[in-house]
């Protein structure tokens, strides 16, 4: 009997050549370019929202109860931008974080996530979509004040991911001393990251599975890899070198992809495979987190007072499975279980989702016209 990977590889030879654009609602299972199957698909599209309200000012001081010795605490500060971020669409999928922390032995100043640090922005009026609409984007901003840092973090409310393939169209702009994070998270031992350090050269991106440090604070081999996307050099965190090239820059728009499957994490940029890891692959259910932060520590570096950096996102595309909480422990709900089964297979390609209302299903999917044949083959071979 053929292996699952072999059969899916065979199917991919003909499915892409026999497809038409479809909406996610027309599909019952989803196949990626790496032959992984998922049962749920969502697009969060921030490109064509109504012209947003004014951007709230960042809070210029922390609550008086916050001191250097404050541990992780949730005290809302700042003002939520009116419009999309106060809509049911946003609230049904995302939560802006308001926690913060004081100073530790490893950091130099307090850090606090603010409601004002997450907002919708838009290009100037000369930059529009093909429909004449203003082009919008989601922004997470961090800024250094005297004695503290205002940061930004949002969590996706799908908390029971158990394997996923996520594509994020993003860029990072601003000053040295901050970290942009795109990652799956459950706890410090179940975390898979894409991180961009604004103090790094613009061709460098970090790909890690946690934990990265051992109990003595030393780098764990194979936990974190620094990828130079020009030279294709992959440097383990224990053996850092520095290379610089102007030909690739995370300050330009790129599609960052992070796949999490059983026993393996994989990373891609603009459809090109960069790296696989088998160390530290999450085994617990997780959720997607986006953040832009600094605390003056060794990892982020120190941002100068008055400086800032931004993570800007046009869209997020997710294909994923969820856990089945019944019985003893967690079990992955695989494609085809329950409902209509895997009757209509769609391919998640590496193109941008079509412009659509934010948060709605649609985008980079292709439907196999011979879906019935595909299902028969799957039933026989898998």
Automatic annotation (TrEMBL):
GO molecular function, one term: hydrolase activity, hydrolyzing O-glycosyl compounds
A family per Pfam: Glyco_hydro_16
Every GH16 domain range: 44-324
Signal peptide, first to last residue: 1-20
Keyword Signal: yes
GO BP annotation list: carbohydrate metabolic process
Keywords associated with the record: Lectin, Signal
Keyword Protease: no
Name used for this protein in its record: Concanavalin A-like lectin/glucanase domain-containing protein
Protein's organism: Sphaerosporella brunnea
Source species taxonomy: Eukaryota, Fungi, Dikarya, Ascomycota, Pezizomycotina
